[in-house]
Amino acid sequence: MHITQLNRECLLHLFSFLDKNSRKNLAKTCHKLLEVFQDPFLWSLLKFHSPVELKKDNFLLGPALKHLSICWYSERVKVCNIEDWMKNSFQKDFCKRHENTVSDFLLDVCNRCPNLLSLTLSGCGHVTDDCILQLLKNCPNLKSLKLENCVQITDHTLEAVTLHGASLRTLHVDFCRNVTQAGLERVREKCPSVMLRAERSANMIPDSKPGKKLMLEKASRKLVQL
Description:
Monooxygenase, LRR_dom_sf, Leucine-rich repeat, LRR (right-handed beta-alpha superhelix), 2 domains, alpha/beta, 6 strands, globular, 6-stranded parallel β-sheet, ubl conjugation pathway
């Protein structure tokens, strides 16, 4: 029995076990399998693990998307979370090449995925408050927002949560060094039903703190002396 003789339900079930690349490759073999690849049923969950994956034409964005995760853990991607004055020329060039990759992708999600229920971003050093604001406005059903080590996220995102996160039930801002204790308390006060977690965020040295560069340079010299 040839695979194309299976009914649509069986083919969808088969596709559900494949990763994005395998689905795309299988869809290239015939028109019937391409139609299955394009079925929204397959694209309610998307996970990405590198900047390159966001630019591949091996997935679909649409109203069916409910859960989105973009988690980068490689050493190269961590460079984007280092302050600019600490980066060498190679690191700056690397960051520049994909500076808007995640933000542009999320704006596309805003326009095409109004039914999003959960968003997880980890290590996305270029994502801004404005990007999260647009998501909260355009995805009114968002129930879970988890941000980890997203260094450009500030209290403006927390304020946006209080204004536009009516459906939100879970908010994580772990290791986001530019989030303050005052901002966290504001969320707790205005959104008591939201389960808030901010591991280490308010205890880290923010980028805007006066003399931070000097403090870190002194600490570095001290370690060298030891």
